[in-house]
Amino acid sequence: MKVLLQAATIYNPNSEYHLQQQNILIEQGTITYIGPEAKEADKTVAANGLCVSAGWVDLQAFTGEPGLEHKEDLESLALAAAAGGFTEVLLLPNTEPVVQTKGAINFIKSKSLSLPVTLLPAAAITVNAEGKDLTEMIDLHQSGAVAFTDGTSPLQGADVLLKALQYMQPFNAVLMNRPEHRRLTENGQMHEGEASTRLGMKGIPALAEEVTVVRDLQLLRYAGGKLHFSLISTGAAVEAIRKAKAEGLQVTCDVASYQVAFTDETIEPFDTNYKVTPPFRSEADAAAIKEGLLDGTIDAVVSAHMPQDVEAKKLEFDLAEFGIINLETAFAVANTSMELPLEVLIEKLTTNPRRILGLPEAILKVGEAANLTLFSPEQVWVSAVEQSKSKSHNSPFFGRELKGKVLGTIHKGQLVLND
User: Fold this and answer.
1) Are residues 226 and 302 in the same domain?
2) What are the tens digits of pLDDT across the range 6-32?
C-alpha cells in the first residue's frame, strides 16, 4: 500500500527536512520519497496544519492484562495509544501476576507483533513489586525488558534501591522509580494544602516526594548508574533534579501531561476522575513544572494512563482508586496546558524517551521504516467518551475543549487514522 502525506510540516531534528513542509510517500511501511512533488498513492492524507514527527513514545502506561483485563487489555491499550499518537508504549509491570519472568516478557512481545503499537515491557525490580528481594534482572534484560521499575509501588528501602543501581550497571539499564514516601502519604486523598483542609480530606504532602528525590539522588551519587524519576509533581523536586543534572549525575525524569492542567484549587471537589497520584498540586508547583519543562530539567511528558473500571471509581472519594485514562488525550492536554513551544513538546514525546530507554532514533529519511505520528497542533476538538478506544472511562477531560488533534500513526506498515 502506498500512502502519501501531503504538504506535511516535519518535526524531526535529526532529519534534513526538519521544520520543512514536504510531501512524504510511504510504500509497504518504508519512506520512499520526501520532497515537493505530488506522488500517486492508494491513500492520501491531507489536512489543514498537517504535521508529522517520529512516532511518539510513552514511558508510563498501565494495562490490566493479564489478570485485570476488565480495566484494559493489550489490544484496547494499543488502540488507545495509536489514537493518541503513540507508536511505542512502556508498560508498567503491576499486572496479576507481576511482570518478573522471561515468560511474561515474551508474552507481551508476542502479543505486540500484530498490533499497530510496539508494546515495550518493563520488568519489576523486586519480586512481586514488594520492595524486598531483587528479581533476576540480567535474565529479564536479555529477554527484552527495556527498563526496570516497581511501577505503582515506589521503592521504599534505601538498601534495595542501592543494590538495584549497582546490579544494573553491567548491562547499562535504567532504574525507574516514582518518588513517594508511603508512610507520609498514607490515607492521603489530594494535595496537602488549604483546599484539602477546607474539604476535610487527608492531604498528600509535597514533602513525601521531595524527601524521596533527595534520598534517591544521594544514593545515585554513591552507587552510580542511571536513575529516572517517574511523575514528578513538585517545585522542590524539580529544583533538586536540576542541580543533580548540573552536577553530572545520570538522572532523568518525566511528568504526566495532565499535571498542570488543574491544581488542587481548580479540581472538581469529590469528583473521583480528578483523583490521581501524585495529586494535582499548587499553582507554584505547576509554574515550577512549566519552567522545568522549558529549561530541559524535565525530559519527557507521559500519559500516566491508569484505567479504572466503574466499580473502582464510582465510590466515595476516599474509597475510589487513583488514576485517569490519558493515552488518547495526552498530547492535546499537554499542548493545551503546558505552554511549551511545539518543538520542545515533540522532543519530550520522541527524542528524549528513546534516549532514556536506549532505543534507536526514528528518523524521517528515505529508506527508513516509517514510524510516524500525524497531528494538527492548532486544531481544536472535544474529547468524547463515545469515541474512546479504552475499556475504561475514568477521565476528567471528556467534554472539554482541547487544542491539538492527533490525526493518526504509521508504524509496522500499519496506517491508523482517527475519524
Assistant:
1) yes
2) 999 999 999 999 999 999 999 999 999
Residues 275 and 208 both lie in one domain: yes
Helix (H, G, I), strand (E, B) or coil at 201: coil
Of 332, 357, 382, the last residue of a domain is: 357
Whether residue 123 sits in one domain with residue 70: yes
Instruction: Report whether 410 contacts 371 (CB < 8 A).
Output: yes
Look up residue 231 and give its three cell numbers.
511523575
Q: All 3 cell numbers of residue 397?
A: 477531560
Supply the range of the domain harboring residue 182: 55-357
**How much is the pLDDT for 299?**
98
**Total domain count, the chain:** 2
Residue in this structure with the C-alpha cell 475543549, named with its chain if needed: 401
> For a pLDDT cut of 90, what percent of the chain falls above it?
99
Residues 312 and 347 in one domain: yes
Which residue carries 514525546 as its cell?
A: 349
To the question of pTM greater than 0.90 for the whole model, the response is yes
Residue 199's region, left for phi above 0, alpha for psi from -120 to 50, else beta, is alpha
Query: In this structure, is the dihedral angle defined by the CA atoms of residues 57, 58, 59 and 64, taken in order, positive or negative?
Result: negative
| 276 and 387 housed in the same domain | no
Q: Which cell goes with 161?
A: 534501591
Position 419 scores a pLDDT of 81
Angstrom distance (rounded) from CA 248 to CA 246:
5
Tens digit of each residue's pLDDT (9 = 90 or more) over 266-294 = 999 999 999 999 999 999 999 999 999 99
DSSP 264-325: TTTS-TT-GGG--SSPP--HHHHHHHHHHHHHTSS-EEE--B----HHHHSS-TTTSPP-B-
Mean per-residue pLDDT over the chain, rounded: 97
End position of a domain, from candidates 339, 357, 375: 357
15: CATH: 2.30.40.10
User: How distant, in Å, are the alpha carbons of 1, 21, 42, 334 from that of 37?
Assistant: 19, 12, 16, 34
| The residue count for the chain | 419
